[in-house]
């Protein structure tokens, strides 16, 4: 059984495969590389088979997003190819670098409780800057809003080595996610109802409640184009982010927490963000936020069942950031991770 399987989920991403697969193969360190294709219509499968014979292709029957697609692909590898000890799930628009794998595998081997890890994620187009999707490891505040070392809302830090350490974080990015295979399958993988966006944060939250750890590795760096499947300005991305954030908050918030008070505060703050979209005339994003909230309320019975099931399995509380990053960023003017955290530690 190989130590690591490199698994790239693809949907109509042939240009990215052409551009970035050669780099992945050149830096695979002998580990098998898979492309799991989600019923693409752009001849991605034929292109990979014709041009990259060393790549193992998994043809999925339909597009079920990041969450459902990776669940199926990793289950296929486990049942048909004997599995692997670890998986890494780089987006198709990720440029890897020499030596990106070894430091993270060393961290896994040194820490049996580590279930998830990510490298530093920098921007492909502005290479000195951290990228939106994960930067140098993420956290979640007391209202369920996410932020990263190196990226808070729309403020992106340059990488000056300030995050070159290896440390625990709350969540690791799905843009280039390393996972311990045993834990992934034990937990049932991602919540497929998320489709895409925040499913990795939800999963990181769940695995911590089971006693596992999430880490970031400062000795590994990759570059991310971002928005390869859904551009940042796409209203459907707005819908998924707002909806899935509420899904995640309701499912995972501790039993003794002030859950519905937080949901009401989120309703207010999401309304404020809708006004910001109104200010710039992005009407479809306002509609997306409204639809996200109604989708959340409509799914409450199922979310409640999931919440109760997770609480029965829970061993530990995952440590959330105890303040509001919305307040700190927009009111107090604290724009960087260091300014926000101050003397606080997690």
TrEMBL record:
GO molecular function annotation: glycosyltransferase activity
Xref: InterPro entries: Glyco_trans_2-like, Nucleotide-diphossugar_trans
Looking at the record's lineage, which domain of life comes first? Bacteria
Query: From which lineage does this chain's organism come?
Result: Bacteria, Pseudomonadati, Bacteroidota, Cytophagia, Cytophagales
**Family of the protein in this entry:** Belongs to the glycosyltransferase 2 family.
Q: Which residues cross the membrane?
A: none
PANTHER family xrefs: GALACTOFURANOSYLTRANSFERASE GLFT2, RHAMNOSYLTRANSFERASE WBBL
Q: Which UniProt keywords apply?
A: Glycosyltransferase, Transferase
Q: Tell me the ranges covered by the Glycosyltransferase 2-like domain, including all copies.
A: 6-133
Q: Indicate what this protein is called per its UniProt record.
A: Glycosyltransferase family 2 protein
- Pfam families, from UniProt? Glycos_transf_2
């Amino acid at each position: 059984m190989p130590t690591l399987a490199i698994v790239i989920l693809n949907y109509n991403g042939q240009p990215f495969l052409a551009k970035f697969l050669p780099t992945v193969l050149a830096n695979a360190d002998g580990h098998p590389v898979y492309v799991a294709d989600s019923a693409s219509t752009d001849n991605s499968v034929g292109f990979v088979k014709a041009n990259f014979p060393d790549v193992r292709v998994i043809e999925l029957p339909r597009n079920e997003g990041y969450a459902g697609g990776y669940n199926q692909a990793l289950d296929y590898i486990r049942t048909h190819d004997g599995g692997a000890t670890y998986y890494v799930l780089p987006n198709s628009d990720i440029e890897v670098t020499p030596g990106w794998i070894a430091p993270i595998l060393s961290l896994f081997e040194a820490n049996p409780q580590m279930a998830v890890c990510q490298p530093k994620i920098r921007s492909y187009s502005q290479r000195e800057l951290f990228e939106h999707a994960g930067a140098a490891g993420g956290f979640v505040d007391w209202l369920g809003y996410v932020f990263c070392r190196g990226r808070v809302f729309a403020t992106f830090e340059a990488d000056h080595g300030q995050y070159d350490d290896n440390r625990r974080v709350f969540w690791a990015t799905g843009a280039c996610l390393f996972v311990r295979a045993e834990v992934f399958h034990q937990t049932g993988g991602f919540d497929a109802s998320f489709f895409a966006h925040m499913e990795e944060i939800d999963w990181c939250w769940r695995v911590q409640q089971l006693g596992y750890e999430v880490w970031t590795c400062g000795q590994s760096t990759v570059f991310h184009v971002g928005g390869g499947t859904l551009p940042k300005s796409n209203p459907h991305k707005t819908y998924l982010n707002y909806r899935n954030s509420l899904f995640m908050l309701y499912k995972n918030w501790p039993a003794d927490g002030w859950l519905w008070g937080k949901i009401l505060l989120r309703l207010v703050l999401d309304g404020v963000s809708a006004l910001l979209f109104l200010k710039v005339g992005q009407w479809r994003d306002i509609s997306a936020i409204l639809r996200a909230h109604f989708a959340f309320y409509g799914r409450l019975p199922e979310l409640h069942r999931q919440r109760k099931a997770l609480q029965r399995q829970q061993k530990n509380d995952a440590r959330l950031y105890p303040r509001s990053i919305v307040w700190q960023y927009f009111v107090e003017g604290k724009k960087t991770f260091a300014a926000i955290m101050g003397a606080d530690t997690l």
